[in-house]
Amino acid sequence: MRIGVLALQGDFISHLAILDKLAIDSVMVKTPGDLDVDGIIIPGGESTSISMLLQSSGIYEPLRALLHEGLPAFGTCAGMILLANSVVDGREDQMSLDAIDIVVRRNGFGRQVASFETSLTVSGIEDGPMRALFIRAPVVEKVSSEVEVLSSVTYSFADSPDKLVPVICRQNKVIVSSFHPELVGEDRLHKLFLELL
Ligand code: GLN
To answer: What is the C-alpha to C-alpha distance for residues 184 and 137, in angstroms, rounded to an integer?
Structure first.
């Protein structure tokens, strides 16, 4: 089994380190030729930049096709935005990989200064709460009936106090999180993803 980590921009090194720690064979995906993998991780970073680089590298079309054929994927933060079917407040020319049926609002939790850390209960993970770091994170505004919500947070927005927001979603073999497990050395979501393969 070999897992690709999209390595165009963002914190792909942290994902590679977690796969290393789990003794999983991995490859940095930088060109379409690197896509011979059993699953792909799309890191946090800046979705608009990753979107542009996906197109200029020629990865966008073949990756989107593989995802449609069922390639398992795990996306964190910017990775969630790229995998979502629909993005609110994105750049107009921002591309979607169209792999999970959710609507996300880019930067919906606010700017860098509004970053926060919390701990989450995650369904399917029984051995204690998960630390979760949110940095300019997307807000999941809608999920289709095909999507399972594995964890949510209660968050107070200016126009809507104490709103329950999904932060980990799964549809078939695609898992996305609005936060960065990879930046706090949390490997249990990676393990959950690997179990889907
Ligand atoms: N706000 C960023 C974006 O639009 C995502 C931030 C992150 O990955 N921490 O891509």
So the answer is: 15
The three state secondary structure string of 122-170 is ECCEEEEEEEEEECCCCEEEEECCCCEEEEEEEEEECCEEEEEEEEEEE
Q: Note the pLDDT tens digit of each residue in 100-110.
A: 999 999 999 98
> Which residue puts its alpha carbon closest to atom 2 of ligand 1?
46
Q: Where are the domains of the chain?
A: 2-194
Please answer whether residues 179 and 133 qualify as being in contact, where contact means their C-beta atoms are separated by less than 8 angstroms. Answer: yes
Split at pLDDT 50, 70, 90, the class of 113 is confident
User: 2-194: which CATH architecture?
Assistant: 3-Layer(aba) Sandwich (3.40)
Token reading at 175: 């898992």
Q: If you ran DSSP here, which 8-state letter would residue 107 be given? A: T
Distance 45 CA to ligand 1 centre (A): 5
Query: With 90 as the cut, is the pLDDT of residue 120 above it?
Result: yes
Provide the CB-side half-sphere exposure for 53 (13 A, CA). Answer: 16
Ligand 1: atom nearest CA of 46 is 10
Span 136-180, pLDDT tens digits: 999 999 999 999 999 999 999 989 999 999 999 999 999 999 999
Please report the sign of the dihedral spanned by the C-alpha atoms of residue 96, residue 141, residue 135, residue 125: negative
